[in-house]
Every structure is written in C-alpha cells, then in structure tokens.
Amino acid sequence: MLTSYHSTRSLDNPVTSKQAILTGIAPDGGLYVSDQVGDARPDLAQVCSGSYHDVARTVLGTLLSDFSAEEVDACVRAAYGPKFDTPEITPVTPLGPDWLLELYHGPTCAFKDVALQMLPQLMSRARLADGEGHNVMIVTATSGDTGKAALDGFADVEGTGVTVFYPAGKVSDIQRLQMVTQRGGNVAVAGIRGNFDDAQTEVKHIFADGRLAARLLESGTVLSSANSINVGRLVPQVTYYFYAYSRLVAEGAVRLGEAIDFCVPTGNFGDVLAGYYAKRMGLPVGRLVVASNANNVLTDFITTGTYDRRRPFHKTISPSMDILVSSNLERLLYYLSDGDCELVASYMADLADKGAYTVSPEILARLQETFACGCADDDATRATIRATWEDEGRLIDTHTGVAKAVLDARPSEGRPRVCLSTANAYKFSTDVLEALGEDTTGLGDFGSMDALAELTGIEPPRQLSALRDAPELHDDVCDREAMTAFVESACARVFS
Ligand SMILES: *Cc1c(COP(=O)(O)O)cnc(C)c1O
Fold first, then answer.
1. Cβ 194 under 6 angstroms from ligand 1
2. Rounded CA gap, 77 and 355, in Å?
C-alpha cells in the first residue's frame, strides 16, 4: 500500500510522498505527516548487518513507499557518493564514556548535507510522477549555511534548478565563498541589499505571487523550497539513527534490542524529530535529549508544557540553533495527540495569534516519557569545547558543544549515549579558537583556520581550505525589489 501523507491540521486531501516532497508545506499551512510511520518496522538484525547505504535504502523504502526500489537505490547511490569524505557517511566514534555521531562529512561540512544531498534526488524523481514532468526551481533565502548545502545538493540534478539569496555583507567570508564558488549549470546566487529577514520576506512574496507562477508554468516550471519541514529532508535523517545503533552493536557497546539514548543540538526540531521517527519504527531508543543554546524555548516547553516565543532573541556562537519557532515540533504534537488535527491546529493558531500555547497534561506526560532537555549558554559551550579538547583531544564545533554540555550535565541513566555532532569545528574556526583561550583579533576566517590547525595539529577539511583559491563565479548583488526578476531570468537560463 502506498504511504499516504496529509496535513498535521487536517485529514482531507491526502497525498503521496512524492507529492508531499514536491509541495513542501500543506496548503492549509500544516506539515505533511503519515499515519503509517511505525506500521512497517525494519528488521533490526538486518539493519545491523548492513552498510550506511543499505540502511538508507531500508528507511527510505519504508517511509516513502511510492518510490520504487530501483528509484530508492538510484537516489541513495547518487546522494551518498564521493562528495562525502568517508564511505561510512556518518561515522560513530568514542568520546569519553559516550559516542559521537559525526554528521559533518559532506560537501559543506555540516549535517544538513545528509538531507540536502538526498532531497534533490527525491525531487528529481517526484516531479515525473504526475506525468507532467515540470522543471522545479528551488528558491531559498539563507542566513549562511542552508544556502550552500542546497546549492551543492541541487547542482546539476536533472530537471531541477536552485536560486539562493543571501544578505550581502552579513555572512562570514567562508559562507560567502562557499556560495559564490558553487559550480553547476543550474545554480544562481545573489547577494541582496538588506538583512536576512528582508530576503526571507521577499522569498515568501515570490512563492505567493500567482501571476509569476502562471508565467513560469507556461514554460513548464514550478517553484519549490528546500525548507527543513519538507518530508524529503526529514526522512533521510532517520537513517543515521538506525546506522548509529548498528555501529554501537558492532562495537559491543549495546546488545541487539537494548536501548540507547541520543542527545541532539536542536533548532528547528528536524534532526531530533527524525530520532522520534526511528523510535516509532522500532529502534530501541531510551531518551531523546533536546539540547538548546540561550534560545531555550524548547527547554521550557519540555519542562512545563507551555511553548512561549515571546522572549528576547539571543545571537549566539551556535547560530544554526538561534530559533524561537521550531517548526517541526508541530509534527511531534500530531503524533503525541494521537493524530488530533483540530487540537494541533488550535495550538498553532494560539502560537500565531498570542505567541504561546500550552499542551494538555496527557500530551505533556507523553512528551516527557521520551524527551528530556537542557540548555547551555555561550560560556558553558566554550568551556565544554575547551574541556573536550584538553581531556579527550577531540575538537568539536559550537553546536556540538551545546549538546555535549547538556549531556555532561545529565546523570547517566545506564544506557549508552550518542551525542550528535552537526558541524566540523573548522566551520566555526573563530569561535572554536576563542573557546580554546586564544586571541582571535584581526585573524579573519582563514587566519583562524590556520591558527586552529597550528594549535591542534588537526587538518582543516579540504572542502573549506580549498575555498581560499577557488574562483568566484557569482557576483550578482541586487535590491530586494529585483529578486522576482532574478528568479525569472534564472528559470529562463537554466531550463531553456
Ligand atoms: C541546522 C543545524 C542544527 C539544528 O538542526 P534542526 O534540525 O534545525 O533542529 C544544529 N547544528 C547545525 C550545525 C545546523 O546546521
């Protein structure tokens, strides 16, 4: 039977996973969910004897059942090839008494690659399912990291294109270079005069522009987004929870069937939600620990049951977790309420209208059965990065530092614990160098990278060090008002 997806806010208008992936967000503003998650359970013994690619085929085949086995296989091969610097894709290594799940071995050195190398492959096939075969142009505004991961994932993928806008002058040297050196015949990059919110707001206008959509459709093109709420980004992340488990079994750290815990540095709640999907699918997961930085709205929510975004926004050294509205939480609420769409819709309406909602005592109890939480501010994170280097000889980035600080502060519950590591330390060289007690004044991104390498003897990843000499291919900078025209001309160029 085909897995069917519907909105978290309504059972009407079910779609296939291919349609959900193409559309991204449901028309009523909800997120696509499937009631069949957990109906079919991967065989654990078989998972534990397979490679990363085998596990990915099993997980994708289970959750995206309207993709044929051949399609899934082709997607897995294309997504997880030599762009990752290890055939293990997400290795697991010991870290003191715990384990580190290294999610940063992809082309942009951060965990979003695991999903954003796969999403374009899924989309490229999904677009053919309705018989029309439209070309898909991805449009994204980025504050730095997601843009590059999307560019790299979509570059030269058949039937797709990608346009990225970043706030000119407001991203780091390395982030800018990562984007403007991107190769591919179907990519477009522009800086915009304004900040990230300006870019984001204008991208929303572009998606809502019916006349633009009609003009593009005439030439066979539809717009879509690579947003982290897309089913095609969520599902690939489930794989590495199963894979990590299989590695711990192989290492003898856990016996097949016994539970392990995960600690996840969290922003939009996509990564940790994938862990919850794995648990529903039968993976023995004890606890999922949600780690936050000073923007600790989720710590409060998991502790009290009240989600309140009316609070100051903190700019931290773990910027990918600087989020006050964790969109993917809506999916968890759907499952914890046993699929009560009306209730989920009412919470989301309260969040939009009042800025807060409180879940029922039953939902809170179920939430706390599986989820634990904790937060670490910048000082605690720096101290943890330093201690991890000095005590373990391991260099961790600022996001991983938050998770490790939270994990270290928790008493052991007797189960093996896996800390998810979401970026290579060199992606945040300046902050990591500072955490190690060094003066970074005037160094710049590459100066910090050199100093960090000198200090630790650890080589920066080639993906980052090579940026220094890579040719800059995109020099467009435009006003916000010109973004629509930029997208249209990119479509014309890419799909001509
Ligand atoms: C996006 C990101 C996160 C947060 O992941 P979510 O799925 O948004 O919770 C954590 N660390 C890094 C490095 C990221 O890029």
1. no
2. 43
Ligand 1 atom nearest to CA at 112: 15
Q: Is the CB of 163 under 6 A from ligand 1?
A: no
The answer to whether 444 touches 173, Cβ cutoff 8 Å, is: yes
What is the percentage of the chain residues whose pLDDT exceeds 70? 99
Q: Which of 170, 212, 213, 177 is nearest to 195 (CA)?
A: 170
Over residues 69-83, the pLDDT tens digits come to: 999 999 999 999 999
Whose CA is closest to 322, among 407, 381, 273?
A: 381
Dihedral sign of CA atoms 287, 245, 118, 197 in order: positive
Indicate if ligand 1 lies below 6 Å from the C-beta of 422: yes
Both ends of the chain: CA-CA distance in Å?
38
Q: What tens digit of pLDDT does each residue of 23-78 get?
A: 888 989 999 999 999 998 999 999 999 999 999 999 999 999 899 999 999 999 99
Strand partners, 374: 291
Q: Is the CB of 268 under 6 A from ligand 1?
A: yes
If one residue of 100, 229, 321 were mutated to test the ligand 1 pocket, choosing by the most ligand atoms within 8 A of its CB, it would be 321
**Residue 11 near residue 73 (C-beta atoms within 8 A):** no
pLDDT, tens only, 393-422: 999 999 999 999 999 999 999 999 999 999
Residues 63 and 274: their CA atoms lie apart, in Å, by 12
Given a contact cutoff of 8 angstroms between Cβ atoms, the answer to whether 106 and 145 are in contact is: no
Whether the predicted pLDDT of 473 surpasses 70: yes
Per DSSP, helices labelled H in 305-360 are 329-336, 341-354
Can you give the pTM of this predicted structure? 0.95
- Pocket of ligand 1, candidates 268, 293, 296, 326: which has the most ligand atoms within 8 Å of its Cβ, to mutate? 268
| Three-state DSSP state, 306 | strand
- What pLDDT is recorded for position 3? 58
Q: What is the token pair recorded at 302?
A: 């998991």
d(CA 418, CA 261): 6
Residue with tokens 């914890």: 336
Question: Is 1 a residue whose pLDDT tops 60?
Answer: no
Ligand 1 within 6 A of CB of 20: no
Q: Which residues contact 89 (CB under 8 A, 6 or more apart)?
A: 52, 53, 80, 105, 114, 240, 243
Find residue 161's DSSP bridge partners: 137
